[in-house]
Every structure is written in structure tokens, then in C-alpha cells.
Fold this sequence. Notes:
The complex is a heterodimer.
Chain A: H1 17-33, E1 48-49, E2 53-54, E3 62-65, E4 71-73, E5 76-78, H2 80-93, E6 99-103, H3 109-121, E7 127-133
Parallel strand pairs in A: 1-7, 3-6, 6-7
Antiparallel strand pairs in A: 3-4, 4-5
Helix pairs in contact in A: 2-3
Chain B: H1 16-32, E1 39-43, E2 59-63, E3 69-71, E4 74-76, H2 81-87, E5 93-97, H3 103-115, E6 120-124
Parallel strand pairs in B: 2-5, 5-6
Antiparallel strand pairs in B: 2-3, 3-4
Amino acid sequence: MKIPSPQRVPRTDVDMVPMINVAFLLLTFFLLLGRFGHADILAVDPPRTAQAASAAVGEADVLLLDRDGRMALGRERIELRDLAARATAWQLAHPGAALRVKADAAADAVNLLECLEILRDAGIAEVRLLTRPADRP
Amino acid sequence: MRLPRPVRRRHSIVLTSLVDVMFVLLFFFMLAASAVERRAIGIGMPVSDNAGPVASSRLELDLLGPTQWTLGGTPLRPSQLRPMLIEAAAGEVLIRTAPGVPVQALTDALTAVRESGRRLRLARLGVP
């Protein structure tokens, strides 16, 4: 006598292995590619350059200058009249260091030069202007 | 007599928790990471009143508007600056900027002068 074997219940679970592979790939991509930092307290769209040295990331102190002439040093809004005192304090805290300036591409360059004159008088010897790569055609 | 085989139970690892955590991490890094590359160019400090002697072979580049530039009094388009700097005699370049010129135009001029390997100085037009 032949006893019928029990009917196999078809598997209904989805094979998740390929999805996990892709998700891990994306996770690794964003882990390696991404750079972390504070969002700027002023909206600044820096000028574009075709060729320039890459800037070190992670340093907190950047002088921001937006298109309306407002400025901030690090995470704090400052006025132009306070810049000399703040720059002197920064220079004493970071002797010999280059201050990074992030100015909006549409800001008046004369405002930037005015800031640079104050920084120069405060004893800051080197300033680096942050830019971003030009869009490729 | 043939007896039915006992049904084998699959001992698979439950991946749901792993997938949940991984997606949380993935969304976190997607939203928090910035892929924008940042660059920096060194800029010469503005000329001071006691800046010392003026170089004998100094070129004066005046930025009168976003695209209205003159080099030694000769009008030029921004795209002409680089070849003109290559042709001109060696020496430092003084970039004088008029009010209303955007930072982008100044950056373009700075980049061209830097690439020519010349010493660079900055000043405001009309300010000694």
C-alpha cells in the first residue's frame, strides 16, 4: 500500500538577501562618501572655481559672509564693528593659523575686502577663501 | 509499508530586525551626510597704507563690474585675463575691486592670477 506523502506547503516568504546586499552597499557608500559638519547659520553659496586645493573639513571656525553683508564667526552672528575684537581673539587662540572665509558668490566683493582689511589689522596673516567645484558642462 | 518522512523544520535566522536597523542607519547617513566637495584658495591680504615699496613691475587689474575688467588700463574680458597674464612680464598683480562687483568675479580673477604663479595683492578701488 502506498501512503500519499503530505503535500508540501509552498514557501511564501520573500528572499531578502539581495535587498540586504544592496542596502549594505548603499550604507557603506554613504558612510565613506559623506562628510559631516554643522549647518552654517547663514545661507551662503560659495563661489565656484575650476581648480583649487581641497579644503580640510571639520574645523569649526569659518567666517561667513552672506549676500546681504551679514556675517558670522563659527556658530555666532557678529557685526562688522565686532569683527576686529573677535579676529584678535581668534588670532591669539590660533597663532599662525589660516582663517577660512566662506563668502556668498553674489556678495559684494568690497564687503569681503573690508573684512580682510580688519582681519589683516588684527594680525591674521593668512586667509583661505572657501569655494566649490564648478559644474562640469 | 512506507512511512511518511517527518517534516524538516527550517532553522533560518530571522533577518527582519537586522534589516530594520540597517535601514535606519541608511536613512540617517543619507540625510546627514553631505557629498559637496569644498575647496579653498589662498588669498593675499589687502594692501595696507604702510605696505612697503611698490614692485616696479606691478600689473594693476581693475574689476569695475562683473565682466568689466581692465589690466593696466586696457579693457579685457574675464576669459582673456589668463592668456594676457602669461604674455605679460613677470611681476605682482594688484587686484582693485569697485563696489558692486560680486565675490564670484573676484574669485575668478584670483584664480587666474594664482594659476599664473604671480604674487597677488588686493585693494578696494578708490581706497588708498
